[in-house]
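Please review this one:
***
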Amino acid sequence: MSRTAFIFPGQGAQYCGMGKDFYENCETARKVYETAREATGLDVAKLCFEENDRLNVTEYTQIAMLVTEVAILKVLEENGVRADVCAGLSLGEYGALAAAEVMELPDLFRLIRSRGIFMQEAYPTGGAMTAVLGLDAETIRAVCESTEGIVSIANDNCPGQIVITGEEGAVLAASQKLSEAGAKRCVPLKVSGPFHSRLLAGAGEKLAAELAGVTVREPKIPYICNVQADYVRTAGPVKELLAKQVSGTVRWRETMERMLADGVDTFMEIGPGKTLAGFLRKMSREVRVVNIETVENLNAFLKTR
């Protein structure tokens, strides 16, 4: 029996103009942007569609990405497209929460706005992230643990691509060791902080305080959380997992392996870019991967149903 997953990309896939054709052509999408404006006080449509210096700043990137993803999601749902399971990479997990209807959208938008601010403020200078290509997680973890300073795995994205995070000096030292250990490349990322590092534990604590006042519902469909790479089927653990996610490792490779093992054969990447599709193709060439980034993508998909 065919099974479908909605998957949502994280920070780094954003670009000026993302989601604009949905906004211009779909009333349902426009309502999502209006809901976000009312909830956060930000004109998210302007942030996404007009050239500006804020789109790549974490506190603005996160709300812009999430609103774009949710706008596309709601148009998909309006057209009768449903998923059996969902997941999202880092901030993309909030897109999965929207698909699972775990929270009301205004609460979700306020939370991601706060998350972006907390992460931006937690460690504004002196942090770094680097993508390590061609080494296994065990080797990378051992090198990080043997390196002086704070450095750890941020994202286990797919076979052969793992991101490390932490203090700038420690990340650089670990990168040199990893190159000597056989890494094909170590590529510094253009980011504004050491995301998914224990250096951001304080941001997670602040987010936990915000979450305390939010109503969480039973997921309408199960989603797989980043920090455990396991299904969340009840409301109980949602808040704790989201707070931990800020400083915890994103176990994306394991998340996709779990979905594949459970028979998911169609993956729909909802939002900007094809990053998650690229990760998936390194894991399986047999599954169907569909990118829904534009109205044209949507219409092409609907013709194949």
Observations:
- The chain has a mean pLDDT of 96.
- The radius of gyration is 18 Å.
